[in-house]
Amino acid sequence: MIAAWPGIANVAMIAGSYLAHKLNPKPLAEVVAPYFFDPIGVLVRDNVVESPQFPESRFFYWKNSPGKKDLIIFIGDDQPASKTYEMAHTVIDVAERFGVKRLYTCAAALTRIHHSEQPKVWGAATREPLLTDLKARGLVMGGDLQISGLNGLLLGVAKERQIDAICLLGEVPQYASRFPNPIAALSIAETMLKILDVDVDLAELREQATEAAGRLKEMAAEAMGDYIDYFTEPIWERGGPEEEEDEEDDNPNSPN
Question: Where are stretches of biased composition, namely Acidic residues (predicted)?
Fold first, then answer.
C-alpha cells in the first residue's frame, strides 16, 4: 500500500497523486468524511448556497502483472485537525483486510541542500531488516528525525499493528519548505518504482520538476536581491561625521 497526505512542500501528495494518475487504479473504498472533518463554511454560487464540502480520503486498487504484487493506493486530500490517530487506524484496517504486506509513505527531509542540487532520498522503516534493504539501494539513513503529520504517524500505527512500513523522504531546501517541490517528489517516485518493480512513465513529473527548478532559481535570485537592498547602502548615500557637524552648525536653532 502507498499512502499520501499533504505535508511539507507537498512532496507526498505530488508523488502519490502522480503514481495514482498514471497507474489508473480502480476505486476501492472511501473514508466517511464527516466523522473526521468538520466543515467550516459553505460556498455560494450565483447567490445559491451549496451543500457542505468535505475533503476526500479514497482507496484505489491496481492489479499488477502475474507474479508481481498488486497495489492499494490511498490519497487523502487533507489531514483532519483531530482524530489523526483514528484516521491512521482506519487506513491500517483496510490494509489488514486486503492482506497488505508492506506500507509506504512519503515525506520531505528538510536539509541544507541548495535548490540547484539533485535531492537524495532518505529512508526510515519500522524494522532493522527493512533498513538493510534501503541501504543496499543507496538511500540515506538520516539517523534521528521526526516525520510530522499522518505521513509519519501512519508508520507508528503500522508498527503497533505489526505491519512492515517504510517512509521515503526527499531532500528539500530549508528555505523552500512552503514551495511545492516536484523535484523531491520525482526522486521519491523513481526510488519507489524501483523498489516496487513497477513501470510508470515519469516524463510529466520530470517536466514539473524542471519548471519548479526554474521558479526556485528565480525566487532565490529575487530573495538575494532583496537581501542586498535591505542590508547594504551605497557609500555616497551615507552621511559622514563631518557632514553631520556642518548641518548642526548651519542650523540656527541648534543649542550652543
Answer: 242-256
Q: What is the 3-state secondary structure (H, E, C) of the chain?
A: CEEECCCHHHHHHHHHHHHHHHHCCEEEEECCHHHHCCCCCCCEECCEECCCCCCCEEEEEECCCCCCCCEEEEEECCCCCCCHHHHHHHHHHHHHHCCCCEEEEEEEEEECCCCCCCCCEEEEECCHHHHHHHHHCCCECCCCCCCCCHHHHHHHHHHHCCCEEEEEEEEEEHHHCCCCCHHHHHHHHHHHHHHHCCCCCCHHHHHHHHHHHHHHHHHHHHHHHHHHHHHCCCHHHCCCHHHHHHHHHHCCCCCC
Q: For CA atoms 70, 148, 160, 140, give the dihedral sign.
A: positive
CA-CA distance, 70 to 64, in Å (whole number)?
Answer: 5
Which three cell numbers, joined as nine digits, stand for 65? 502483472
Cell numbers that stand for 184 in this block: 523531491
* Structure confidence at residue 107 (pLDDT): 96
| Residue range 29-47, pLDDT digits in tens | 999 999 999 887 889 999 8
pTM across the whole model: 0.82
> Whose CA is closest to 106, among 29, 25, 195?
195
Residue 28 grid coordinates: 476501492
Delineate the domains of the chain, giving CATH numbers in brackets.
Answer: 2-39+51-213 (3.40.50.10900)
- Gyration radius from the chain CA atoms: 25
Angle, to 10 degrees, between the axis of helix 203-231 and the axis of helix 182-196? 150
Q: What is the C-alpha separation between 3 and 1, in angstroms, rounded?
A: 6
Cell numbers representing residue 250 in the block? 548651519
